Amino acid sequence: MADSRRSDRYKNPNLQIPTIYNLPTTPEYLFQEESQVQRRSWGENLTYYTGIGYLGGATLGATKGFLEGVNASEKGDTMKLRVNRMLNASGQAGRRVGNRVGVIGLLYAGLESGVVAVRDTDDMVNSVVAGLGTGVLFRAAKGVRSAAVAGAIGGIMAGAAVAGKQAVKRYVLI
């Protein structure tokens, strides 16, 4: 019994790590076709664009509301009343702008995924068509003229965003 020794792997740093810790570093796919697609799925796009839109819109809206609350304060107000006014204005404007931009992101993601599925290609045209459709759908209730103008603005903005992304990839060393 005196001859048996207990192994202590912490004393010898040269021992191999058990194979249970050798996890893959690349994404795993169920089907081979999934590994060849170099874009996010429609669900990931939907979550990404909606979340980014809501977060960005809420931040900008809260900033706008904060400035409105600061400007709305009167000379005789107490500090507690001024802070309350700023918080109320920030919350109201943040919710309003965040929800609008989140809906725009939701519409854009759905339309872009639909256009990719119909055309079976992934290029700049998909983004421009999705931006155009998003503008039209978002302003459809305001009338035909407003929807057409919003569609043109959405298409131009989506095209500019994709062109800017391509320019950054090409000319900016990252």
From TrEMBL:
GO BP terms: protein import into mitochondrial matrix
Main location: membrane
Membrane disposition: Multi-pass membrane protein
InterPro entries: Tim23-like
Keyword vocabulary terms for this entry: Membrane, Transmembrane, Transmembrane helix
Keyword flag Membrane: yes
One Gene Ontology term, aspect cellular component: TIM23 mitochondrial import inner membrane translocase complex
GO molecular-function terms, A-Z: protein transmembrane transporter activity
Subcellular location, record wording: Membrane
Protein name: Mitochondrial import inner membrane translocase subunit TIM23
UniProt organism field: Kingdonia uniflora
